[in-house]
Design a protein that fits this description.
The complex is a heterotrimer.
Chain A (H helix, E strand, L loop, with lengths): L1 H10 L5 E2 L2 H5 L15 E3 L4 H14 L3 E4 L16 E4 L6 E5 L4 E4 L5 H8 L4 E2 L12 H7 L6 H4 L6 E7 L5 E5 L7 H5 L8 E8 L1 E2 L3 E9 L2 H13 L6 E6 H11 L9 E9 L1 H14 L5 E4 L3 H12 L1 H4 L6 E4 L2 E2 L5 H15 L3 E6 L4 E8 L6 H18 L18 H4 L2 H14 L29 H4 L7
Parallel strand pairs in A: 2-4, 3-4
Antiparallel strand pairs in A: 1-2, 5-6, 6-10, 7-11, 8-9, 8-10, 12-14, 12-15, 13-14, 13-18, 16-19, 17-19, 18-19
Chain B lengths: L5 E4 L13 E4 L3 H14 L3 E4 L16 E4 L6 E5 L4 E5 L4 H9 L3 E2 L12 H7 L6 H4 L2 H4 E7 L5 E5 L11 H5 L8 E8 L1 E2 L4 E7 L5 H10 L6 E6 L7 E7 L3 H12 L3 E3 L15 E5 L5 H11 L1 E6 L4 E6 L5 H13 L3 E6 L14 H11 L15
Parallel strand pairs in B: 2-4, 3-4
Antiparallel strand pairs in B: 1-2, 5-6, 6-10, 7-11, 8-9, 8-10, 12-14, 12-15, 13-14, 13-17, 16-18, 16-19, 17-18
Chain C lengths: L2 H5 L12 H6 L6 H12 L6 H8 L6 H5 L6 H15 L4 H11 L5 H6 L4 H14 L1 H9 L12 E2 L7 E5 L4 H5 L1 H13 L2 E4 L9 H5 L3 H18 L3 E4 L2 H7 L2 H5 L6 E4 H8 L10 E5 L3 H4 L6 H8 L4 E5 L13 H4 L1 H17 L4 E4 L2 H13 L5 E4 H10 L4
Classes of the chains: A alpha+beta, B alpha+beta, C alpha/beta.
Cofactor (chain A): FAD
Protein name (chain A): Glycolate oxidase
Keywords (chain A): FAD, Flavoprotein, Oxidoreductase
């Protein structure tokens, strides 16, 4: 590490290389604090060329590297390597170009998601993907995780809104992946690859025209079942709202404690439905929505932007707000087909009761993306383990119902062990072919996404004996 | 020759880009596709997957082709979960049959595939044509949420799933979409669906070519949210026809708003006859460009003597000449289009030596992907960028 | 330090974009999340290293992170406790010690501060020279404002018209010595709005500067004295026109272990609660309102000053972009960390400049000095005024 550090100092300014142990430790985890590792060295490059140089040095020294943006990820995707370099893009935060005639912006990876929208809001445009952490999470991290957000029900994910990326490949080349270019859709494969295929250093995003009308409705129901029923009816009526979000009583309690969002008292579930589009369409959809939500005991309609923000406030703060009602918690992220929601929620209830562990539910009801918050007291012996069991059982439920182990938080280090439950060995081996094409040396964020890294020289097929990486202690067999 | 799958001798009608295969394999299941590919791997036979054959002449002819893998018998719609707005279908289902089945439930797959009567799910994905409504709904890759592929060695692999929101693992679907059969075979696909709009209205008008860029910019920025705006200019110097689509319960009033932006025209509940049609001529050029490149693209087409049809909003048009296109004409077109930030892809041409795709910055990476998936270069060899 | 306060942080990072030093440098250890991590390391046994102390010192204490935190982490409390710990354990280098010595034996003592007034014009002219010798002293010299004629305030200013309230008024140290006109305006506005204003003559520093620097003992001593003075004056409410002082006085309970016998209100907060009675005369002006951190973040007072400004006919209020980010003044920060303060000041000056406003209004003397100095540097001079001065002008029907 010392010789590598010296080499890094030859390509980066002194204050862009962090080696002090106390400082290094502040980078030991991202938004998921459960997994921690103090990085060998942290670098804060200011340009794409610097990133490329660092990566080339990692190749020269055979040292792994991990990219990190704002460190808000919830699957440990940016968990550092003790034997590796952590490349932090937080100094690369210039908006390089705003090109409204072509409806696009070119930004550096450290620019926050919300900063893009703020830069073009006055001109009537916005950047559509809106993860809950949008004021802090970086666009580079969004690209790595293929972030969604509340409004992806109608507008899709990061991958649907990125036109091009300049990337540093795992061997240190600067390459541009552009949707307009012919050839394989490497951009599509790169987005969501969680830093295992390289590091995005310049991102061209598509800007969307702000809708003419937005109507945000908060419907309070006695029970989560009634709320779920309303969701099915909305979809059944051929309405695609911009967002449909649901929170259960426990999640409402937390949000209330944190931001005093003043949701209707006594609600077993609140549903937030946002309609947007041409005014004439929104008006008609809203009329229909009112009929569908007739069963709600209270229906609030935001009259202006401030009231809309007030409705969203509780929802957007829900994750961190749970800290107010529980000393510790796990944020889970799973997906089930929307029609399976009622059954799955009932099953979560049962599991929760069985283990004596409370579960608060916050979810993107429109696309079946659950965010159960598994609450426990870390001071109570065994509670953490029971919470882990409940959290894992919820993922099993998702897989059973033909869903996914992650809708937006990514696999990272946290869920790599669940991948074999969702995918067969040949599925995973086939994904590894992509990995090997980009990163034959396995230096880019190793240990993430896939449970057992396969050496790229190996021929796919039945594995014999102990994997060399497992044998050498570099990987763990699940 | 191959256990468990029907194979017949190929005839002249089975040729791919003029290359005559020896056999045509007609598997009826994913397992049979895998069996065929395994057998071909053992015998080092080159394979070209085919669906309805409507776009098999797109892309370069294969370097070699021993087996034409006809997926037409994988024609089952496996699951239509209407409540989830998701459909899973085998590769050989035609786009027309799929649309009809979905329409029964008031839904649609928002890909305006050309030749829908014959074109299949697999072929549409492999060539990934962008239809008129790509501006609103994206291209096929944006609507594909899960895929089952068979690799050249017969390995069956899945990625994605049947939920729209899913970030587990790499998205092989994106990689295979638009790969022209060079990485393996798409056997099944799962798509996200949309409800059929309550109404559709087209604003149809003839406009001056010089006014088109301004109109297109206004349409793209319009909060009346057009789903598509297509231009048709059958002769290089003709006055272009423009058709703008509004979809939704309020389509009529929105179409009226859009007509203001176009500067007149009639509002109709049917598209013009040329809407979304793709020429079957022996030369077909695809031009992609940023919005501000429209004027330059139109001018380049005029100079090259090409007919133009396609989207002025999503920046993708198809051009066809009245006579075979000479290499120097292509070079001129490409120069002008690229200067405006666009790309020229020659999908169909009788000229063997023509540079179909131009320079691609990520080509070395693409070669590495090809090398991993198809180390024996047996899948549609030579058909795609850089002779991949 | 209480590990429980530290464990409230769930590491979500929502504080990052609001932190001035993270905005400047983009480094984890100079963000609230990173600093809390450093505190955790210290609590778990890591000694205070010079690096660690440097990151704590770099915190402006603007409390924007407290506003942004969805988990309710008491960063304000954490950083104060940490500063005490740093003062106790960390040996500073001699030059740094000397500067801190000057500041803490000068600013909290109005009388000593008064002695510097005759030399302030000289100090301003010599700022560049002094700055080369010691950047901190240079910054201090450059910030000194032009001082207006001192106005001696009576012990009591009677209400005009019907008496609606009796309030005490804090004069502040910097406010009293460098901005006496602000105190005069404050007393007039309160009186015109129907308040008897009690101004105890023997009041000293409220202790805010010492609290923010971790000088706990000095802070307690000054706080006790302030409490005594106002309790003797017999008022139930003390109105404060300096945001930094107000936020500290609101936390006397926590500092002293018992609540004082009066409530503390910022001027805007108090006037908004009281409701207007005096006639507002038109002031045809465009103003940019600057949220002082110790008002907006520490006291949660954001809407009231805007409402008061909006109540003045002819006056147009413009919002400053990035209004939640600190201007870099932050009490004594611009003296101890002149480079960072200067960068933040330049950033704020640019934001203020972008509004095109004619007048900058704020509720804190430190901010006013800092932003005015930054705008002077940028050659984009702007007139500045305290909230009280604007209201005073409108109520009296005179120009500003």
């Amino acid at each position: 590490m010392e010789t590598l550090t010296a080499a890094l100092l030859s390509v980066l300014p002194r204050d862009s290389v962090i080696t002090d142990p106390v400082r290094l430790r502040t980078y030991e985890c991202d938004g998921l604090t459960y997994h921690r590792a103090t990085p060998g060295v942290v670098v804060l490059p200011a340009t794409a060329e610097q990133v490329a140089r660092v990566v080339r040095l990692c190749n020269d020294f055979g040292v792994p590297f991990v990219a990190r943006g704002a460190g808000t990820g919830l699957s440990g995707g940016a968990l550092p390597r003790e034997d590796g370099v952590l490349i932090v893009t937080s100094k690369m935060r210039a908006i390089l170009e705003i090109d409204l005639p072509n409806r696009r912006a070119v930004v550096e990876p450290g620019v926050t998601n919300l900063a893009i929208t703020e830069a073009v809001r006055e001109q009537g445009y916005y950047y559509a993907p809106d993860p809950s952490s949008q004021q802090v999470c970086s666009i580079g991290g969004n690209v790595a995780e293929n972030s969604g957000g509340a409004h992806c029900l109608k507008y899709g994910f990061t991958v649907n809104h990125v036109e091009a990326c300049e990337i540093v490949t795992p061997d240190g080349d600067l390459v541009t992946l552009d949707r307009m270019d012919p050839g394989y859709d490497l951009l599509g494969a790169f987005i969501g690859s969680e830093g295992t295929l390289g590091i995005a250093t310049k991102i061209t995003v598509r800007l969307s025209r702000a809708p003419e009308a937005v109507t945000t409705v908060l419907a309070a129901y006695e029970s989560i079942e009634q709320g779920g029923q309303a969701v099915s009816e909305i979809i059944g009526a051929g309405i695609v709202p911009a967002a449909i979000e649901m929170m259960d009583a426990l999640a409402i309690e937390a949000a209330e404690a944190a931001v005093a969002c003043s949701y209707p008292e006594g609600a077993g579930a609140v549903l937030i439905v946002e309609l947007d589009g041409p005014a004439a369409e929104v008006e008609r959809q809203f009329a229909r929505l009112r009929e569908i939500c007739a069963g709600a005991f209270e229906l609030r309609v935001a009259a202006d932007a401030a009231e809309r923000a007030a409705i969203w406030k509780g929802r957007k703060s829900a994750f961190a707000a749970v800290g107010r009602i529980s000393p510790a918690y796990i944020v889970q992220d799973g997906v089930v087909p929307r029609t399976a929601l009622p059954g799955v929620l009932a099953a979560i209830d049962r599991i929760s009761a069985e283990h004596g562990i409370r579960v608060a539910n916050v979810f993107h009801a429109g696309d079946g993306n659950l965010h159960p918050l598994v609450l426990f007291d870390d001071a109570e012996p065994g509670a953490g383990e029971r919470a882990e069991v409940v959290s894992g059982a919820i993922l099993d439920l998702c897989i059973e119902h033909g869903g996914s182990i992650t809708g937006e938080h990514g696999v990272g280090v946290d869920k790599a062990r669940y991948m074999p439950r969702m995918f067969s060995e040949t599925d995973l081996d086939t994904m590894q072919l992509v990995r090997c094409a980009f990163d034959p040396e396995g230096l880019a964020n190793p240990g993430k996404v896939f449970p057992t890294p396969r050496l790229c020289g190996e021929v796919p097929g039945v594995r014999k004996g102990v994997h060399p990486l497992v044998e050498s202690g570099k990987a763990e067999q699940f | 020759m191959i256990e468990g799958a029907t194979v017949r001798q190929a005839g002249p009608e089975d040729a791919v880009g003029g290359v005559l295969p020896r056999w045509v394999a007609l598997p009826e299941s994913v397992e049979e596709v895998a069996a065929v590919l395994r057998a071909c791997a053992e015998r080092d036979l080159a394979v070209v997957p085919a669906g309805g054959g409507t776009k098999l002449h797109w892309g370069a002819p294969p370097e070699r082709c021993d087996v034409r893998l006809d997926l037409g018998r994988l024609d089952t719609i496996l699951e239509h979960a209407a409540g989830d707005l998701v459909v899973r279908a085998q590769a050989g289902v035609t786009m027309g049959a799929l649309a009809a089945a979905l329409a029964d439930e008031g839904q649609e797959l928002a890909v305006d595939a050309p030749f829908p009567e014959d074109a299949t799910v697999g072929g549409t994905l492999a060539t990934a044509p962008a239809g008129p409504r790509a501006f609103r709904y994206g291209t096929p890759r944006d609507l594909l949420i899960g895929v089952t592929v068979v690799l050249p060695d017969g390995t069956v692999a899945r990625s994605g799933g049947k939920v729209v929101k899913n970030v587990a693992g790499y998205d092989l679907g994106k990689l295979f979409t638009g790969s022209y059969g060079t990485l393996g075979v798409i056997a099944e696909a799962t798509f996200r669906l949309h409800p059929l709009p309550a109404a559709r209205r087209w604003v149809r008008a003839e406009v001056d070519a010089a006014d088109l860029p301004g109109i297109a910019a206004a349409l793209a920025a319009s909060q009346a949210e057009p789903s598509a705006a297509e231009v048709d200019r059958p002769e290089p110097d003709a006055r272009p026809a423009l058709a703008v689509l509004a979809e939704g319960a309020a389509a009529e009033s929105r179409a009226a708003e859009l007509r203001e932006l176009v500067g007149g025209g009639e509002i109709s509940d049917a598209p013009p006859p040329w809407w979304g049609l793709v020429s079957r001529d022996e030369t077909l050029v695809e031009v992609r460009f940023p919005a501000t490149g429209l004027a330059a693209v139109l001018e380049a087409a005029e100079r090259a003597g090409l007919a133009v049809r396609g989207s002025v909003l999503s920046g993708r048009v198809l051009m066809a000449p009245s006579a075979p296109m000479e290499p120097e004409v292509l070079a001129g077109l490409r120069r002008r289009v690229e200067a405006a930030g666009g790309r020229v892809n020659v999908l169909v041409t009788p000229h063997a030596g023509l540079d179909r795709w131009g320079q691609v910055s990520a080509l070395p990476l693409m070669r590495r992907v090809k090398e991993r998936f198809d180390p024996g270069r047996r899948m549609s060899p030579g058909r795609f960028v850089g002779g991949i | 330090m209480d590990p429980k306060l530290i464990n409230d942080c769930v590491h979500c990072g929502f504080c990052l974009p609001t932190c001035p030093t993270y905005v400047l440098w983009g480094e984890e250890m100079d963000s609230p999340r990173g600093r809390i991590h450093l505190m955790k390391q210290h609590v778990e046994g890591t000694p205070v290293t010079p690096e660690m102390a440097g990151h704590f010192d770099a915190c402006l204490g603007c409390m924007a992170c407290v506003t942004a935190c969805p988990s309710g982490v008491r960063y304000d409390r954490l950083i104060e406790l940490t500063r005490v710990e740093v003062e106790r354990r960390h040996e500073r280098d001699p030059q740094e010690r000397a500067v801190r010595g000057i500041v803490f034996s000068l600013f909290p003592y109005p009388r000593r501060l008064r002695l510097t007034r005759p030399v302030t014009p000289l100090a301003r002219r010599m700022a560049g020279y002094v700055g080369r010798a010691n950047p901190s002293l240079g910054a201090m010299a450059a910030l000194t404002p032009r001082v207006e004629r001192r106005e001696r305030l009576p012990r009591v200013v009677r209400a005009r018209g019907e008496r609606r309230a009796v309030v005490g008024m804090l004069l502040g140290c910097v406010q009293r010595e460098f901005f006496p006109q602000v105190n005069a305006a404050t007393a007039r506005v309160l009186s015109m709005e129907g308040c008897d204003v009690v101004i105890p003559p023997r009041q000293g520093c409220c202790g805010a500067l010492s609290v923010h620097a971790g000088r706990e003992e000095q802070a307690r001593r000054l706080a006790r004295r302030t409490v005594r003075v106002f309790e003797r004056a017999g008022v139930n409410t003390v109105v404060v026109n300096s945001a930094g002082c107000g936020s500290s006085m609101k936390e006397y309970g926590e500092l002293l272990g018992e609540e004082p016998g009066f409530e503390v209100r910022d001027l805007s907060e108090f006037l908004a609660e009281l409701g207007p009675v005096a006639e507002r005369h038109p002031l045809p002006l465009t103003v940019a309102y600057h949220d002082a951190c110790h008002l907006a973040h520490a006291q949660g007072v954001r809407s009231q000053p805007r409402e008061l400004l909006a109540g003045i006919p002819g006056l147009e209020v413009r919002e400053i972009p990035e209004s939640a980010i600190c201007c870099g003044s932050a009490g004594t920060y611009n003296i101890f960390r002149p480079e960072a303060a200067r960068d933040l000041g330049d950033r704020k000056a640019k934001a203020v400049g972008s509004t095109g406003a004619e007048l900058l209004v704020s509720a804190n003397p430190g901010c006013t000095m800092q932003i005015a100095a930054a705008m002077r540097r940028a050659g984009d001079d702007i007139r500045v005024a305290h909230m009280a001065e604007v209201l005073d002008a409108s109520l009296r029907g005179v120009g500003l």
